[in-house]
Write a structure and sequence with these properties.
The protein is α+β, with helices and mostly antiparallel strands. The strands form two sheets. The protein has a five-stranded mixed sheet. The protein has a two-stranded antiparallel sheet with strand order 6-7.
Length: 147
């Protein structure tokens, strides 16, 4: 569907309505807050699940890093435009569509309340750090010391 060249808005809306994979994962995996696929396909309509990858999105650091490392899973503390640009820990992975010679950027945002619940089960200081060395979550308040 991500590579389909739609001829009308009606076709896009029907295709979105029939596609239920993202909603399935959101329903059965409470750890996931949001799933988005960014595609360079101008016939798509932004429905917060499928987002056309415009020039602004392609300039974002997480997009460029994942684009260079096709197939690798990266973790970034990214702003989620579907949730008022709030920062969330997100898995980012370039998805190659070899038959079409295209790619999309899959972004899976982690539910922060579920993440905090998991971390609070740990007896020792536990921190999650993204690929930019940003502390994105911890089970204790951390006092950063200037060196």
């Amino acid at each position: 569907m991500a590579n389909t060249q739609f001829k009308s808005t009606y076709q896009v809306v029907n295709a979105y309505r029939d596609y239920d994979k993202f909603s399935y994962y959101l329903q059965y995996y409470p750890e996931i807050s949001k799933i988005r696929l960014y595609m360079d396909n101008p016939t798509l309509i932004n429905n917060w699940d499928f987002i056309p990858a415009d020039a602004e999105i392609k300039k974002r650091q997480w997009f460029q890093a994942a684009e260079k490392e096709a197939g690798y899973i990266r973790w970034f503390y990214t702003q989620d435009e579907t949730k008022n640009d709030q920062p969330y820990l997100s898995l980012v992975r370039r998805i190659n569509f070899l038959d079409y010679n295209t790619f999309g950027m899959l972004v899976i945002t982690i539910n922060p309340s579920q993440l905090n619940w998991i971390l609070n089960q740990e007896a020792f200081l536990t921190m999650l750090i993204d690929d930019n060395n940003t502390v994105v979550a911890s089970n204790q308040k951390i006092k950063l010391v200037n060196s």
